[in-house]
């Protein structure tokens, strides 16, 4: 099965949003490596943003006139979705890290639990794509157990962070947190749209269906733009000064 896509203004705007996100992720990496290597949250956010772009590779190839044979990309999609989930986990870890004093470390057990959660997502989506039955149930489980759940954890961490910075935090940091909160809320809405539209489709056709959803690309573009702006605004937060 071959895929060919003609990009319209909507898709081009979506790509522009991802380009901004990529620039911001590179900027954060530059800031971390040159100035703040002791602030791991900057590196985590940079890595999280970068992983959000992987899903676009087949679309870019198709736009360049290269035939994309979906059957040959099965393994790519099996790894892509868990890697996007890993991106969200990195975002979450960055928020947890930035809330803590520099001298305090995240407990090892916490890293272990998140590691096994991410690892389980790789096994789960391998089953999801190769299984011939229970597609609807597996779609519900995947979105709920991985993506909706990590979004809830991120949102709770953000609310706690903004509460702790309500009196002593800078306006810049507070604004950044608000941008990230809005991005998370929109992202949850996006996943609910995906769930509603793709829940009953066979695994062979879900990618074609996503390719036709302008709103999915628009919302993902908006989410990445808001996250990028939020991270750039909030990355200078100094945990030790807040006593968080």
Please, could you describe this protein's structure?
This is Histidine kinase N-terminal 7TM region domain-containing protein. It comes from Candidatus Wildermuthbacteria bacterium RIFCSPHIGHO2_12_FULL_40_12. Keywords: Membrane, Transmembrane, Transmembrane helix. The model has no long low-confidence stretch (mean pLDDT about 80). The N and C termini lie far apart (about 55 Å). This protein has helices at about 10-35, 40-50, 55-65, 75-100, 110-130, 135-165, 170-200, 205-210, 215-235, 240, and strands spanning about 1-5, 70. The longest helix is centred in the middle third of the chain and has 30 residues, at about 135-165. The chain has about 240 residues and is an all-alpha fold. It is globular. It has a two-stranded antiparallel sheet.
Descriptors:
244 residues, mainly alpha, Rhopdopsin 7-helix transmembrane proteins, two-stranded antiparallel ribbon, 10 helices, 75% helix
């Amino acid at each position: 099965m071959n895929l060919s896509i003609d990009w319209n203004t909507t898709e081009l705007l979506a790509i522009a949003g991802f380009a901004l996100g990529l620039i911001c992720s590179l900027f954060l990496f530059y800031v971390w490596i040159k100035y703040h290597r002791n602030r791991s949250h900057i590196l985590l956010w940079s890595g999280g943003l970068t992983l959000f772009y992987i899903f676009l590779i087949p679309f870019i190839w198709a736009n360049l006139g290269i035939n994309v044979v979906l059957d040959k990309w099965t393994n790519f999609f099996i790894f892509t979705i868990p890697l996007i989930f890993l991106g969200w986990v990195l975002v979450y870890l960055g928020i947890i890290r930035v809330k803590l004093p520099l001298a305090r470390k995240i407990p090892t057990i916490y890293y272990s639990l998140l590691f096994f959660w991410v690892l389980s997502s790789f096994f789960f989506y391998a089953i999801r794509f190769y299984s011939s039955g229970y597609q609807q149930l597996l779609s519900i489980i995947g979105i709920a157990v991985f993506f909706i759940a990590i979004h809830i954890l991120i949102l709770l961490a953000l609310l706690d962070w903004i509460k702790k910075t309500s009196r002593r935090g800078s306006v810049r940091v507070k604004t950044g947190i608000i941008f990230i909160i809005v991005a998370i809320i929109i992202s949850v809405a996006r996943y609910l749209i995906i769930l509603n539209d793709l829940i009953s489709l066979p695994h062979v056709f879900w990618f074609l269906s996503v390719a036709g959803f302008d709103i999915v690309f628009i919302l993902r573009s908006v989410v990445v733009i808001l996250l990028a702006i939020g991270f750039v605004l909030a990355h200078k937060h100094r945990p030790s000064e807040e006593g968080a």
